[in-house]
Amino acid sequence: MKILITGASGLLGLNLCLANWDSHTLLGLDRGKLHGTPCELIHADLDDPAAASRLIDIVKPDAVIHTAALANLEKCEADPEGARYLNAEIPGILAESAALASVRFIHISTDAVFDGTKDGIYTETDAPSPPGVYSATKLLGEQNVLSANPAAAVARVNFFGWSLSGTRSLSEFFYNKLLAGQPANGFTDVYFCPLFVGDLAEILVGMLDKGLSGLYHVVGSEALSKYEFGVRIARQFGFDEGLIRPISVEKSELTAKRSHNLRLSVHKLSTDLGQPIPGVSTGIARFYAQAQQGYPQKMRSYQQE
Ligand SMILES: NC(=O)c1ccc[n+]([C@@H]2O[C@H](COP(=O)([O-])OP(=O)(O)OC[C@H]3O[C@@H](n4cnc5c(N)ncnc54)[C@H](OP(=O)(O)O)[C@@H]3O)[C@@H](O)[C@H]2O)c1
Q: What's the pLDDT tens digit per position in 148-185?
């Protein structure tokens, strides 16, 4: 299968592009940040609606994994119109042209569509209630995708791993602070289900192989606080876990509203894929193993000078 990955320079997109798939050929779409990647690259800016609407007809993939987004919460609050265009309109345009060309389509959404007020675990049947511009535009993107292309799959994700910049993920935030011997704030009142990006990439390709469609929670199978996540990173790398400072998210300098409870059920995903979904311990071990193998440095070598 020829799979087009949008957002190839992003945390998820680049990890997808760098994985080895026996039976699939990958094509990454970026805006000129990358060079020399093992997968072929095409350059396009999705801010151009004409480029977006012609993309699938020109590239002729068998499947698309649409990861490109404005994924910074504070930037979305500052530019709600730009966020709505990229996170909601573009997914609808791409999903529609995929439907017309009979191309499989997976749209990447977010666990943050929930405001976190539920006392328990969110399933796909729970009504979302986005707390801010980012999550509201991502929810609109889900709706636009599924109404333009009912055969598409929407994956609500949360993940960690190594990125092109070395600073994109929460795991890199803790790692960089710990490596420098500096304290790092960890929220004790935000619970989430992070999935290692390598596990996420395998699951997304598995969803394409199985032809899954509709809404799925594609997160890790274990919930923990962001503080506990920082402590687990410290332990895995042998750093001083006392550097992770337990604080409330309400006392942080972050301005965009964030949910306290992002525990999502993976029961539907696990059942339909016919496999268990990994938890955070194996994911952090794989994150560590990649560091030992020089993966972060290799990744950065693909950055255009
Ligand atoms: N990171 C997480 O834990 C998390 C959690 C929940 C959901 N998500 C969702 O997962 C997806 C991937 O997130 P991520 O963390 O990998 O994002 P990211 O690292 O911020 O990457 C975003 C990607 O989108 C590209 N992009 C932005 N504007 C574009 C445009 N106008 N035209 C073409 N490409 C454009 C960026 O290209 P440039 O590099 O050129 O800017 C980049 O490759 C997003 O849909 C996000 O909403 C992420």
A: 999 999 999 999 999 999 999 999 999 999 999 999 99
In the CATH scheme, what architecture does the domain 2-165+193-222+264-280 have? 3-Layer(aba) Sandwich (3.40)
Which tokens belong to 274?
């016919």
Helix axes 280-292, 170-179, angle to 10 degrees: 50
CB of 168 closer than 6 A to ligand 1?
Answer: yes
d(CA 292, ligand 1 centre) in Å: 26
Residues 6+ apart with CB under 8 A from 112: 73, 130, 131, 132, 134, 135, 138, 258, 259, 262
| 209-261 confidence digits (pLDDT tens) | 999 999 999 999 999 999 999 999 999 999 999 999 999 988 877 776 778 99
Model-wide pTM > 0.90: yes
Q: Compute, in angstroms, the gap from residue 10 CA to the centroid of ligand 1.
A: 5
DSSP 112: G
